[in-house]
Amino acid sequence: MTGTAKRVGPLWMMLFTLAWLAIWTVQLTPVQLLLPLQLDTNGQGRNWIAGVVWAGVVLSVGGLVGIVAAPLSGRWSDRTRSRWGRRRPWAIGGSVLSAVGLVLTGLVSGPLAVGAAWIVVSVGVSVASAALTAMIADQLTDQRGAASAAASSAQAVGIVVGVGAVVLIGLDVAQSYFLLAAIIGVVGVGTALLLPDAAAHELPAAVRRPTGSGASWRDRDFLWLLAGRLIVNIGNAFGTSLLLFFLLYGVRVPSTQSQDDLLILIVIYTIFVVIASVVAGMLSDRPGPDRLRRRRTLTAVSAVVQAVSGVVIIISPSLVTTMIAAAIMGAGYGAYMAVSLAFATDLLKDPDDHARDLGLVNVSAQLGQLLGPLLGAGLVALVGGFWLLFAAAAVLSLVGAVMTYAVRTRSPASPAPVPAPR
Question: What pTM value is reported for the model?
Answer without folding.
Answer: 0.73
